[in-house]
Amino acid sequence: MNRTWDENKAAINQLWPVAQFTEEEKRLWHDDLSGLDQDTLYDAIRNAKRTHDSIYPQLKWMLDAYRDLDALRRAALRVNRPMEKKTEWNISDERDREKCNELMEWVDRAQTNEYETIRHAVFSDENFPQLHSLTCLRILAYAKERLCGIKPQFGRVNDDGGVTPAFTTEGIQGRTPLALKD
Fold it and tell me: What is the distance in angstroms between the CA of the first residue and the CA of the last residue of the chain?
């Protein structure tokens, strides 16, 4: 786009037409904003107008909006550069089934006090790279329910460690319009 400071100054004056700046205020705005990337500044000016319903603009609004956009831009660019090399595992579906059957047989023979041992075994260096993640979760859910009597719960964790269900028989956190049809 290649906007200039003069174009952005005009945009500020048009978005806040009532505002009158003293010469010192004009110098302050110029000093703080003219050296920034003007295309990003233009978007920041528009965002400041969208979020602040006032007839007088504030320099802080422009700088905050500019910093937010600049930080988002830098974060988006950072995604393209991996921080570390990812481990690549090629998990065979056949091997996944075999390991799953072995571990499930163990769970079926196990005693209640063996849950932690099974959990560690599922995520051990020997087994985990040979199992799909979802398979691991399913094995552990089965083991937890079979050996510990704990069913999977979904919802918000309370301060005491309990779970307030997000889904109830009456709907999501209360009766839904479909549940009211009964």
Answer: 58
- Extract the tokens encoding 122: 């599922």
Structure confidence by residue, pLDDT tens digits, 120-133 = 888 887 776 778 88
Closest-CA residue to 107 (of 118, 116, 99, 96)? 118
Q: Which two tokens stand for residue 13?
A: 């004056």
Task: State phi, psi for 168 to the nearest 5 degrees.
Answer: -125, 175
Which of 54, 58, 1 minimizes the C-alpha distance to 33? 58
SS3 120: helix
66, 39 contact by CB (below 8 A): no
Rounded CA gap, 45 and 39, in Å? 10
CA 70, CA 62: separation in Å to the nearest integer?
12
Cα-Cα-Cα-Cα dihedral sign, residues 101, 103, 107, 109: positive
Which has the closest alpha carbon to 51: 65, 72, 71? 65
Q: Each residue of 134-182: pLDDT tens digit?
A: 888 888 888 888 888 777 666 777 777 676 766 555 544 554 444 444 4
pTM for this one?
0.46
Give the integer Cα–Cα distance in Å for 8 and 42.
Answer: 6
Residues 15, 180: Cα–Cα separation, whole Å: 48
Contact predicate 42/33, CB 8 Å: no
